[in-house]
Amino acid sequence: DAKTTQPNSMESNEEEPVHLPCNHSTISGTDYIHWYRQLPSQGPEYVIHGLTSNVNNRMASLAIAEDRKSSTLILHRATLRDAAVYYCILRDVGRTSYDKVIFGPGTSLSVIP
Amino acid sequence: KAGVTQTPRYLIKTRGQQVTLSCSPISGHRSVSWYQQTPGQGLQFLFEYFSETQRNKGNFPGRFSGRQFSNSRSEMNVSTLELGDSALYLCASSTGHPYDEQFFGPGTRLTVL
Predict the structure, then answer these.
(1) Under 8 Å CB-to-CB from B56, ≥6 apart: which residues?
(2) Do the Cβ atoms of B49 and A101 come closer than 8 Å?
(3) Of the candidates B16, B110, B79, B74, which has an alpha carbon nearest to the alpha carbon of residue A99?
(4) Do the chains contact at B42 and A105, CB–CB below 8 Å?
(5) How many CB pairs under 8 A join A and B?
């Protein structure tokens, strides 16, 4: 399974934009890039996903490098509620073994009021 | 629509006992995945069931097993409990397509004494 690497932790000031990086240098052509986050004492929740093009939704934006070996999750205005562990995950649509989702250690985001 | 529900939410067992955890997926979802989360190992994939068949399995001993019923509800069983099995057990449901998001339940907190 292709692996991802993320910084262990990051800090942001409230109402400032946050850029959370993820490296996936061994990504294959059929890997989707997914981001999840886990708020304290809760199960993970889906944030966003993409394949090649940049993506936007109500929660965040996903910027994918042209070679797809890295991506960045962008929170446009961090709030205290965004303090969580953020996971960058690759999911291969081209294999028969669907849904074997491998979570790395993720990035723990702290938001400073 | 109703989210993913897991029962029980908390459980205390002693070493050597067995335990069964239950997960009810979102209506219409055919895939249920199970994860173990511990402070030391993070989120680890246990297995995934799709239409009553185990489609994927993580690297856990045979003491960990599961099944899925025709209504997509799933159970996981851990036999001969060990202290190291103390963890938060999360289940997630999805349509089963790798590009679709997984919806996580709140988890079952298992403590083995």
Answers:
(1) A97, A98, A99, A100, B33, B45, B47, B48
(2) no
(3) B74
(4) yes
(5) 69
Residue B51: its pLDDT value, please? 92
pLDDT digits (tens, 9 = 90+) for A60-80: 999 999 999 999 999 999 999
Q: What is the largest CA-CA distance in chain B?
A: 40
The secondary structure of B25-65, three-state, reads CCCCCCEEEEEEEECCCEEEEEEEEECCEEEEECCCCCCEE
Residues of A with CB under 8 A from a CB of B: 32, 34, 36, 38, 42-46, 49, 51, 87, 91-93, 97-106
The DSSP call for residue B101 is P
Per the DSSP assignment, residues forming a β-bridge with B88 are B37, B109
Averaged pLDDT score across all residues of chain B: 94
A17 close to A76: Cβ distance less than 8 angstroms: yes
